[in-house]
Specification:
The structure holds two protein chains of two kinds. In chain A, 68% of the residues lie in helices and 8% in strands. Chain A is of the alpha/beta class. In chain A, helix 7 packs antiparallel against helix 9 and helix 9 crosses helix 11. By secondary structure, chain B is an alpha/beta fold. Classes of the chains: A alpha/beta, B alpha/beta. At the A-B interface, helix 8 of A face helix 2 and helix 3 of B.
Chain lengths: 383, 284
């Protein structure tokens, strides 16, 4: 019998031939995961070396201590034997090892259960992404249609939701959003005024900072900033709330009780944002103008009264109502995006996080698209 | 004889589906040639069974066999790939949405985790269906909600939120909500999951009590052998390997007479005949 040593001393693996037809796998020493595992290729190489063995057995006389490391190695050996249809004698191994190997092999692998790695080309990936975006837009429009139908049922008293829920959502997306809206829109006013002042001062036209800030805030920036804040704050919250309700089967419970989740959960949220967004927009406009006035007073030394008179002269009611109208539409977009992503949420906790993220992305993207469409339409109709 | 529901007001003024659950009428639930599939992946096919009045009908099978999915098909939460579910004479699968919605009001469902609405107190959870589907006043709703909570041993917990009570209590509160409208059919999805043996036994006793006193037909999804033998009077066994039902009948009869090895293995916990039969005798 010839033996050759092939692995480090902690887990010793060697091979021998009892006769020309039997391969003896000698396992000795301590077999621990922390020492690393010998490669199954060593056994495969022995099995394929001529004369090819017709039987495999083990010699574990010098085996001291073992853990899952040994089992992992033995399962690999077992697979090699199965592939070659080679009978193996496991009896020389300790009983505990044999039982655990048997346990690991007791249930055969389910056919088709293993995920096959798939490689698709760039064009294929691009196509999938395009289809996915088209599907996403289709889902959004369908959901918007369903919400519209539910709204149409509301005046006839056929849409069911709790008034208290509406009040809670109004409080949450109205009064509680004031702090962050105040900070962000005041700073936007400051930035607009600062950037404008640097340029306008060169022409001695610093007073027109008031026009710049007033028109920008009332026509677009007030509604847009309020929408972006609400998409990140409230749209994500809607998706997370509805997503977690889906995970805990609360939405199923409504459905099986004959209560439409769309009416019960979506209507109060959409209604609350449609009511609150115009108010937040007007508030944003005022705070933006205040930011501009602050820069003008401190940097350009324009008195507050002069600044406000200039703003009043520059900004028309059409500008203000145009912004307010846009804000209401943005409110619908944000609420519908948030609720749609919540309803589409999977059944795991990580899916809730994904739903919240997608709600923000969808909300912001659609708000900006809508802003572009409004800019075009307002230009065409001369507003 | 038509049953007039004691609580529910009919949305269109007609007792459209009231006769569906007449005791001398057709079986309350019939599942015909049902195929359940996710896209092209068929989960179960050729499911056929009938649930009779007053049955406690067990849907059993190993993990992943599609028990809860079958329940979701029966509740209309998933549309079948093929086949249909009938409640009395009413074809629920092909019914108009308004009729299906009205039919749902005759059901009570207890979900695995209770599925209580977390933003509402227990009384509000139980009171919501009462407020939506009855003409009861606010004070009356509070009284009925308190009664339903008392029935499940939660007297005094009306003002608690779901997050303030234990898992077992949440299940009982979910049951109180499920029986809020005195439903004709009660569905339970894994009622014993996550409960200790004593709470589980108490819930089983409660199910029996409600069946006897409310006259409801009960459908339970479970794989808890103790519960199956304690309360089940009829059952269907789903097998994941053959992708269909392989047994139908009283679980105790199946244990005693089934010749199918898969059913016997399941009902005897893989061969512990003596212990399980003893358990069946104790409960039966």
């Amino acid at each position: 019998m010839q033996a050759q040593k092939q692995t480090p001393p902690n887990n010793e693996l060697s091979f021998a031939r009892a006769d020309n037809s039997t391969l003896v796998v000698r396992i000795a020493g301590d077999w621990h995961l922390r020492h690393g595992l010998p490669s199954g290729d060593l056994v495969a190489k022995q099995l394929d070396t001529a004369p090819k063995p017709t039987r495999l057995t083990f010699d574990a006389a010098d085996l001291r201590d073992w853990d899952s490391g040994l089992l992992t190695f033995l399962i690999g050996v077992s697979e090699l034997c199965h592939k070659r249809n080679l009978p193996a004698d496991w009896s020389p191994l300790p009983e505990g090892v044999r039982s655990l190997v048997q346990l690991a092999e007791a249930v055969p692998e389910k056919t088709g259960a293993r995920h096959e790695a798939s490689h698709s080309s760039f064009i294929e990936e691009l196509g999938h992404e395009a289809i996915s975006y088209a599907q996403s837009l289709d889902d959004f429009l369908r959901f918007l249609g369903e919400v519209t139908i539910a709204f149409a049922r509301m005046p006839f008293g056929k849409a069911r939701f709790r008034r208290v829920d509406l009040m809670i959502v109004i409080q949450d997306c109205g009064a509680r959003a004031f702090g962050i809206v105040t900070l962000v829109t005041f700073l936007v006013g400051v930035i607009l005024a600062f950037e404008g002042a640097v340029q306008l001062q060169q022409f001695g036209a610093a007073i027109f900072v008031a026009d710049l800030v007033g028109i920008a805030m009332s026509r677009d920036m007030g509604a847009m900033m309020a929408a972006i804040i609400m998409a990140g704050r409230t749209g994500a919250a809607f998706a997370a709330q509805l997503g977690s309700m889906k995970v805990t089967q609360e939405i199923d419970a409504l459905t099986t009780m004959g209560i439409s989740p769309l009416e019960f959960l979506v209507l109060p949220r959409v209604l609350a944002l449609v009511l609150m967004m115009p108010l937040l927009c007007i508030y944003s406009d005022c705070l933006g103008v205040a930011g501009g006035a602050f820069v003008s007073a401190t940097m350009l030394h324009i008195p507050l009264g002069t600044y406000l008179r200039e703003t009043q002269a520059a900004v028309t009611l059409t500008d203000i109502f145009g912004g307010v109208f846009k804000a209401a539409v943005y409110g619908i977009i944000i609420a519908v995006s948030g609720c749609l992503r919540g309803f589409q949420c999977g059944n795991s906790s990580s899916a809730v996080g994904d739903a919240a993220t997608e709600a923000v992305v969808t909300g912001v993207v659609y708000v900006i698209v809508a802003c572009g469409i409004f800019a075009f339409i307002f230009n065409v109709i001369g507003i | 004889m038509a049953i007039t529901h004691p609580l529910i007001k009919s949305t269109d003024g007609k007792q459209a589906l009231a006769a569906t659950f007449a005791k001398d009428g057709p079986p309350p639930i019939t599942v015909k040639n049902l195929t359940m599939a996710y896209g092209s992946f068929v989960l179960m096919k050729d499911i056929n069974f009938t649930v009779n009045h007053g049955d406690i009908f067990i849907i059993m099978g190993g993990s992943g066999s599609g028990k809860s999915t079958l329940l979701r098909h029966m509740l209309g939460l998933i549309e079948p790939a093929k086949g249909e579910v009938l409640y009395g004479d009413f074809n629920f699968t092909k019914g108009e949405p308004e009729q299906r919605e009205e039919m749902l009001r005759h059901f009570g469902v207890l979900y695995q985790g209770g599925a209580l609405w977390s933003s509402m107190t227990l009384a509000e959870n139980v009171g919501l269906p009462l407020g939506e589907f009855t003409d009861l006043t606010g004070a009356e709703i509070r009284e009925v909600a308190a009664l339903k909570l008392a029935l499940v041993g939660l007297k005094g917990f009306e003002g608690y939120y779901p997050s303030q009570i234990s898992g077992g209590m949440q299940k009982r509160a979910g049951l109180a909500r499920a029986i809020a409208l005195d439903p004709e059919i009660l569905f339970f999805d894994e009622p014993s999951a996550g409960l200790d043996p004593i709470s589980s036994r108490l819930l089983d006793d409660l199910i029996l009590e409600l069946r006897d006193n409310l006259g409801a037909t009960v459908v339970v999804v479970t794989h808890e052998l103790a519960s199956i033998f304690a309360i089940g009077s009829n059952s269907v066994f789903l097998d994941a390997e053959s992708k269909t039902m392989i047994a139908h009948g009283d679980p105790k009869d199946l244990l005693a007479h089934s010749t199918d090895q898969r059913v016997r293995t399941f009902l005897t916990r893989g061969g512990e005949d003596n212990k399980t039969e003893k358990s069946a005798r104790d409960h039966g």
